Amino acid sequence: MRLSGALLGLLLSTSLSAATVPALGELELLAEHPLEGLSGCHLSGLARCGDEWLAVSDREDDRLYRLQQQGEVWQAQAETFNAPPPPTSSLPWGLRARTWAAGLLRGGNLDFEGLSCDSAGNRYLLSEAHAAVLQISPSGSADWLKLPTTLVRQARASGMLLHHNALLEGLAIEPNGERLWLAAERGRRGLLVLHRLNGSWRCTGGCVLLSEAGQQPSLVEPGVSLPVDFSDLHLFNGQLFSLERGAHRICRRNPNDGQAEKCWSFAAAALTEARRYPQPYGAAEALWLDDSSAWVGLDNDGKARGDGESRPLLWQFAAPKDGWSAP
């Protein structure tokens, strides 16, 4: 059963109270693709690098997955790499200790939560656990970017990166590899930016673009309030897009100040009884855009949704009729 139009409209309009945006449209679901071969059902990052679809899991520290399009069901094939020990984290000892313990229990000490690539074929993986970015070259060698220590300090001074499992959650990089955006997940959520100058990553004019708090009603469980969040970022045609899991939407944001310009909802497709998962915040963790589509990856944590499907999924939504860049 689908949500009635009136009820869905009420839920959507209410969910915008924490972060007002100029407009909201509903995206049309074109297809959904179950993924086979992705260990543990944990899809935390997605990218199309050249002609290849790539994915990453937050429970595995030594591999990417190449996604092979085979009709409705896509097959994931592992591509392994050797990550050197992560750099010393600027996060406080208490957060690092909790992250270390969580990694022992569930797997994935590096906790990769984002994936992007530049025009030279380098892949970038965001480690939430260590607030660090791993670069994998086209040849397969892996090295950590030397990020400035002021990045975490400025983020924490703005109220971000204060809580366990609510740290950095998404990244996007310019095709030329000169500018890098990072998203702080929640409580407070925010956007950070770094510039590469003379081969070094720096906070030019400050790292923090946006820091905001707020609550939004769960679209899944009436009466439940959730913090506003970011679950991934993507840069498309020079514009920054955020995936917002709790609100079931994608927003276009100004890459220079992080302010929302326009948002599109995918709640109508996500909240049918057949597609609902047994948690209040949704499962959308990964985002990629092209001219014709938005691709949203779901990390279902091994849980079955309403129709019994328990594999990780990739949703393909049609781009808005006027495109992603329209005013």
Automatic annotation (TrEMBL):
Coiled coil: none annotated. Keywords: Signal. Residues 35-187 form the Phytase-like domain. Pfam families: Phytase-like. Residues 1-18 form the signal peptide. InterPro entries: Phytase-like_dom. This is Esterase-like activity of phytase family protein.
